Amino acid sequence: MKKNIIWIFAILLVSIITIPTSVFAQDLNLSGTTSETLKEAFDTEGITSYDLSNYSEVGNKVPIYLFRKNGCQNCKNFLTYIKDVLLPQYGDKFKVVSYELSGNASNFNLLNKVATFFNDSQTTYATPYVVVGDKTFSGAIYHNNEMRNEIESIIQSNTTYDVIDEMLNGNQNINNNKIFTDNGITLTSEALLNSKYTLKASAINLQNIILDNFNYLTAYDISMYDGMNIVPLNNGSFQIKIPISEKYNTYKVAYIKNNQIIETLNATYENGFVTFTTSHLSEYAIYGMNDPIINNDTVIEKNPNTLDGVEKNIITLILGTIILCSCTFLYKKLN
What is the residue extent of each domain of the chain? Predict the structure, then answer.
């Protein structure tokens, strides 16, 4: 009887632990929501003279989710900012999905879930509430240069991080979708990336590409994929760690394009890895060099210290003997 009670208790405990995840995965339901295109949002707010010739809501673009209310001046100002600034400069890089909140419980419920995902859930919101990539903005965005600059920086990064996709995939909270590994190589992104992305680091032979005074070590073609398609990650900040067994005093990483060195990057070595930071993914070659010591404008190659441990011990012994004999002589003379 006691064993049965223990088993029942264990089953109930496991059920309680697993319920929240399974419930959340089904919790986001977009069937009751109604969204607008950018054009529809413009027209609803009476915004005219917009140019959508360079704008498309198809393909991998930086997603902008706009939660707004009809008649909200800050919302209209944000749409005007899109028309006057974002469309002319970045119209081919982003896409807007607008959710009007007035009297629409499903849209407001979606706003609540998105805000909870970003850990800024509250009972009331300053509209517009805007999600660009993995960042949120709200209120008087039009008059805030810092927020506008950050929005434009995210768009220029070409990130395709999509919070709605993340939530539909069952993710409960904005998490560390920053670290990706392949072939022993680790990439850490400063910004969150889509959790569906995969890193591909393929070893390539670039030993014919010479970096003066350095020894060629290895090279990789490093790319991020969304399924079978390469994700163009540019203007970001990515730390890359590559395993290297050869030890040198200085390491350099060369960005290679069309079999030519386009740029060299400084790198550090620790615990068997060469680490460097770059703004984009591409082909990279690793080089190492043992530095000379510069002394009085004369180059002296590093050599092992000629005064080894045995010689030091002999000198110490001789000095110790001399001191001991001197002390003994003085002691006898004084007595």
Answer: 2-168, 179-293, 309-335
Q: Comparing 114-128, 205-219, 270-284, which segment has the lowest mean pLDDT? A: 114-128
Over residues 165-179, the pLDDT tens digits come to 888 877 666 654 678
Which residues, other chains included, contact 251 with Cβ-Cβ below 8 Å and sequence gap of 6+?
244, 267, 268, 269, 274, 286, 287, 288, 289
Quickly tell me which residue has 């002319």 as its tokens. 88
Residue in the block written with tokens 């709605």: 164
Record: fold of 2-168 = Glutaredoxin (3.40.30)
- Looking at the domain that runs over 179-293, which CATH code has it been given? 2.60.40
- Give the integer Cα–Cα distance in Å for 249 and 247: 7
Task: Tell if the pTM clears 0.70, that is, is over it.
Answer: no
Spatial distance between the Cα atoms of 95 and 142, rounded to a whole number of angstroms: 18
Looking from the CA of 27 toward its CB, the CA atoms found within 13 Å total: 19
